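Tip: read the tokens left to right.
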């Protein structure tokens, strides 16, 4: 059974072509194959190339001993032309996508050679009629469109189809392999084990307010607060000009903020209240942070180098001591302790979690309420440690996400969630830095029959995509693949 862990997109192609071929009502594998053909058959686009060195070909690598090269009129060349025609601004992207497609086609051609496949004239005719390259406004094949081509153009179309049919045929065969009933039933049977869960989260926010206040009072400079707005330019000279214009009354701060290159631009330059310990998120030099915090209300400071460029700051509220009666301020203090004194914070949170755990044995919800904590719910969910998309697990039903991430990080804990007796309150489990969860598995609130029915259909229809993903990843990740794309591209493009 192919792996469903890798769900990266298949090599993308021009979306308008894909829509066009869906009208033909062919199967999934046929459509994928025809899409590759249609990219190849866009022959009337003028050649576009970044390579002006006069070489007859440029080799970008190899697959299983066969060169992956760009040469006039070959598959790689035609791919570049068609991709550049749809997006002429993205030359590097066009070359990289064309390169990957060429590697993929080369691998498929080699598979076709192994079985001795040779395209017939009838097969080529079928592609011309059914491939979607010569259709009228109703999406139907129009022979007059093909007849209007010159003999040279017709020969080019037929040759390109002939060159691509072996890869397409292999692709069709692989994508249309029937999924066995036993395989599908086995995958779906995993959904038969279902549980609900509820859990209490204990984290840095449980740290006592009094202790947080004491910490802030012992370190007042860290939590000193200033209200700021900012305007940022790419260079120091530009920032100096902005400052001079504002001081001369030639423009307002808000006008300058409209063209600022930092995230505050969308809020008219407003940053809001910033603690001193947070100033490093903006200013790259501590001395500049001190200058901003020393400035008077209503004045401008800077320009200073920041992580966004060169910034001029407006002091909307002069620096002042933090309001430790404000819940948001206290939350910031606790967050700072958690990040900068993790050992102290973790010791407290673990002890608090142990206390809540003991109380939860008798009254789960009551224990959470007494500690001022919320109870999160998850489920119904089936065990899904491999994160298969065909199993309705915690990744779909845990809105808060902590139980899901804790289980995914610890297979033993994952197993305990499903092996423990329903209603058992499990011991506190670490679910991140200074964070513990106390979980209780429950009987499912609903069965999974509806979702299982949906997954039955989904499994059958989506399996070809997984097969294609596996094939693509196998080719591009193969030891047989020598990839020198970026080295060769930049050596030859003059960039």
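Filled-in amino acids:
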């Amino acid at each position: 059974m192919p792996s469903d862990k890798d769900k990266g997109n298949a090599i993308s192609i021009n979306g308008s072509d894909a829509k066009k071929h869906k009208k033909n009502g062919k199967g999934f594998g046929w459509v994928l194959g025809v899409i590759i053909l249609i990219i190849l058959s866009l022959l009337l686009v003028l050649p576009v190339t970044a390579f002006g060195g006069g070489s007859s070909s440029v080799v970008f690598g190899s697959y299983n001993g066969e060169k992956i090269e760009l040469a006039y009129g070959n598959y790689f060349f035609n791919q570049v032309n068609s991709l550049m025609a749809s997006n002429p601004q993205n030359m590097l992207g066009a070359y990289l996508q064309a390169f990957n497609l060429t590697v993929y086609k080369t691998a498929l051609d080699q598979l076709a050679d192994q079985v001795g496949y040779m395209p017939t004239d009838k097969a080529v005719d079928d592609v011309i009629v059914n491939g979607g390259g010569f259709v009228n406004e109703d999406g139907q094949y129009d022979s007059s469109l093909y007849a209007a081509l010159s003999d040279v153009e017709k020969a080019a179309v037929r040759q390109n189809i002939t060159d691509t049919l072996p890869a397409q045929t292999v692709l069709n065969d692989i994508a249309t392999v029937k999924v066995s009933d036993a395989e599908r039933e086995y995958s779906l049977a995993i959904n038969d084990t279902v549980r609900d869960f509820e859990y209490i989260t204990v984290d840095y926010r449980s740290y006592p307010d009094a202790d947080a206040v004491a910490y802030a009072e012992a370190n007042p400079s860290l939590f000193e607060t200033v209200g700021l707005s900012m305007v940022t330019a790419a260079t120091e000279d530009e920032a100096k000009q902005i400052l001079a214009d504002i001081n001369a009354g030639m423009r307002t701060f808000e006008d300058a903020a409209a063209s600022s290159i930092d995230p505050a631009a969308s809020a008219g330059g407003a940053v809001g209240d910033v603690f001193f310990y947070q100033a490093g998120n903006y200013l790259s030099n501590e001395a500049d942070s001190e200058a901003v915090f020393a400035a008077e209300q209503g004045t401008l400071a800077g320009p200073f180098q920041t992580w966004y460029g060169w910034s001029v700051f407006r002091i909307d509220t002069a620096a002042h001591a933090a309001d430790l009666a404000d819940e948001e301020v206290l939350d910031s203090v606790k967050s700072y302790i958690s990040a900068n004194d993790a050992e102290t914070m973790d010791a407290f949170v673990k002890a608090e979690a142990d206390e809540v755990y003991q109380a939860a044995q008798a009254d789960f919800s009551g224990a959470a309420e007494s500690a001022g904590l919320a109870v999160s719910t998850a489920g119904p969910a089936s065990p899904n440690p491999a994160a298969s998309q065909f199993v309705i697990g915690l990744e779909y039903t845990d809105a808060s996400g902590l139980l899901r991430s804790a289980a995914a990080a610890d297979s033993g804990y994952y197993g305990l969630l499903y092996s423990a007796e329903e209603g058992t309150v499990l011991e506190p489990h670490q679910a991140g830095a200074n964070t513990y969860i106390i979980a209780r598995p429950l009987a499912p609130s609903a069965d999974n029959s509806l979702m299982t029915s949906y997954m039955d259909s989904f499994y059958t229809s989506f399996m070809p995509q997984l097969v294609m993903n596996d094939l693509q990843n196998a080719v591009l990740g193969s030891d047989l693949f020598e990839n020198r794309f970026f080295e060769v591209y930049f050596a030859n493009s003059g960039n």
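The chain has 20 helices and eleven strands. The longest strand covers residues 310-320.
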